[in-house]
Write a structure and sequence with these properties.
Blueprint (H helix, E strand, L loop, with lengths): L8 E9 L3 H8 L7 H9 L5 H20 L6 E10 L3 E6 L5 E6 L2 E9 L11 H19 L1
Antiparallel strand pairs: 1-5, 2-5, 3-4
Helix pairs in contact: 2-3
């Protein structure tokens, strides 16, 4: 019987982040499936304020992987990242004629899961981005072969 090696997955969660989940999802969609150095670069140049919170969670996930499992942070990729809705803080704004209208201050929970690269660090992460890269590589090779 052959020994089966499983990929280690480590995650980090930030709870009750004071930004709406809809806005946070716009940022986390850019780093899903990317390697950790690539994700850090994307977050460093992101213009949205929530990118700082996402980067903090990514650093925490990498630190968890390095301390608990002895993994190298540069050999990891973002295998899963998602934003869930947190508790909504409710406030009231006074309006005309003695009325009130609600103010909903939304919060979110940001979860990032990092895994080891399948080939030990060489190449890119698995997922959607890999299949796109492979298709473009195949097109280039085909183009070079015909030229």
């Amino acid at each position: 019987m052959a020994a089966v090696e499983t990929k280690r997955e480590v995650r980090a969660v930030a709870k009750t982040v004071r930004v709406s989940p809809r806005k946070a999802r716009l940022v986390v969609d850019h780093i899903r499936g990317r390697t950790v150095p690539e994700a850090r670069t994307i977050l460093a140049f992101a213009t949205r304020a929530v990118a700082d919170d996402v980067e903090k969670v990514l650093r925490s996930a990498v630190a968890n992987a390095e301390s608990a499992h002895g993994l190298n942070g540069d050999d990891l990729y973002v295998s899963a990242v998602y934003v869930d809705e947190g508790p909504t803080i409710k406030r009231w704004r006074p309006r005309a004629r003695g009325r009130m209208s609600p103010i909903k201050k939304r919060t979110c929970h940001i979860t990032i899961q990092v895994s080891e690269l399948a080939d030990g660090g060489a190449g890119s992460a698995t997922g959607e981005t890999t299949s796109k890269r492979l298709r473009s590589r195949a097109r280039r090779r085909k183009k070079e072969a015909t030229a």
